[in-house]
Design brief:
Layout lengths: L18 E8 L3 H12 L5 E8 L12 H20 L3 E5 L1 H11 L4 E5 L3 H6 L1 H4 L8 H16 L2 E4 L2 H11 L6 E3 L22 E6 L8 H8 L6 E6 L10 E4 L7 H8 L3 E4 L8 H8 L4 E4 L4 H4 L6 E4 L4 H13 L1 H18 L2 H15 L3
Parallel strand pairs: 1-2, 1-3, 3-4, 4-5, 5-6, 7-8, 7-10, 8-9, 10-11, 11-12
Helix pairs in contact: 2-3, 3-6, 8-12, 10-13
Length: about 375
């Protein structure tokens, strides 16, 4: 279950002097990509890291329990067993769920909470995710109480976006001095603009990347794209079934950080993410790092990635006309889209550098441990 520290201690430093940090990380959707990227960049010589995957797969006798209970029990056991084996100095949780499920074991050390969305914020965007918001009954009140306690007892509450930071403050009364915004980072060397315009073929190409085609606004993009001139091409990367055509190419076998996917970003002119609901949008940050202007919905953490009118265009979710207008504007103005792409890359360098952001998180971990 646990990946033991592999890094060698710094010269002159013993293992006992290194700070042992246990990362209990949820593994679904973008959280797994976040975990993989973070793990690659936790390289400090004074840190010994232990990684505890929390996948909520039902195992053993607990699989016979009703599904919500068996899933929660699976997560609880993964966190508690993993943390006990780690015997770490500091715990790090991505989302409050493993921290809550871990109970007293999770709170037995100073801990840092990192999340892409708070429960109250998730309830506000429930429709887009097919999520049923918590009501006002005793179970909902208990869950809210546990979430509040978990956030208030954390050494730091880290949000991926300013929207999450605002929810910590407004929905859970976390003091400002214990709130930080550290977005997911991308590898700026891997995700980079093409060395020259020769990596494209001169056609106007729009890229969409989203596993959940419907929630990510894929149908709206197809309708908006149909209004563009016939020499435009749409490339869709998704796990869902989407009909291809002469102007729409569909790819379903690319994984996060796949070299072929990276090359695909560099061969396109615009990235489109007209999502109906979104907590952050790591794919948009990858597009910015690749030097692409981004046309995306004004939801969730996306305004932290897309600076409207500078690095791309923000449009209302579900507004096909606004989406078509933004795409047509960039089709008609190659100089503007190249300028936006350069600005997007500069913004990615300042806000989404994976190594810098991992180091910022480790600084909080050291402070939580009193170092």
């Amino acid at each position: 279950m646990i990946a033991r520290p592999a890094a060698e201690p710094q010269e002159g430093r013993t293992d006992d002097e290194r700070l042992v940090v246990a990362f209990a990380m949820e593994q679904h959707l973008g959280l797994r990509t976040y975990c993989d990227n973070l793990r690659t960049h936790v390289t400090a010589d004074d840190i010994a890291s232990t990684w505890i995957p929390v996948d909520y797969e039902r195992r053993g006798w607990s699989a016979r329990l009703p599904r919500p209970l068996s899933v929660a029990w699976s997560g609880r056991e993964a966190v508690r067993v993993g943390l006990r084996e780690a015997n770490a100095d500091v715990h790090v949780f991505n989302t409050q769920v493993p921290a809550v499920l871990g109970g007293s074991v999770a709170r037995s050390r100073p801990y840092v909470l990192v999340t892409d969305v708070t429960p109250r914020e998730y309830d506000r965007i429930a429709d887009g995710y097919g999520h049923r918001p918590d009501g006002s009954g005793p179970v909902a009140r208990l869950k809210h109480h546990l979430n509040v306690r978990t956030m208030h007892e954390a050494a730091w509450c880290v949000g991926w976006s300013n929207r999450v930071a605002a929810s910590y403050r407004e929905d859970y009364a976390v003091p400002d001095e214990r709130i930080r915004v550290i977005p997911p980072g991308v590898d700026l060397e891997q995700w980079r603009p093409p060395s020259s315009a020769s990596e494209g073929d001169g056609n106007f190409r729009v890229l969409f990347v989203g596993g959940d085609f419907e929630r990510k606004g894929g149908r709206h993009l197809l309708r908006a794209f149909s209004t563009l001139p016939p020499d435009a091409e749409l490339v869709v990367v998704t796990r869902d079934e989407v009909p291809a055509s002469d102007r729409v190419r569909v790819l379903s076998d690319l994984n996060p950080n796949d070299p072929e996917l990276v090359d695909l970003y560099r061969s396109c002119d615009v990235f489109a993410l007209p999502t109906l609901a979104e907590t952050f949008g790591i794919a948009a940050a990858e597009a910015a790092a690749s030097g692409l202007p981004v046309v995306a919905s004004d939801v969730g953490g996306i305004p932290d990635i897309v600076l409207d009118g500078s690095t791309g265009c923000l449009v209302p979710p579900g507004d096909d006309d606004a989406l078509a207008t933004a795409l047509r504007q960039l089709y008609d103005a190659p100089d503007q889209r190249r300028s936006m792409g350069r600005a997007a890359r500069r913004h990615a360098e300042s806000a989404f550098d994976a190594q810098r952001n991992a180091d910022s998180l480790l600084d909080l971990v050291r402070r939580a441990a009193g170092r």
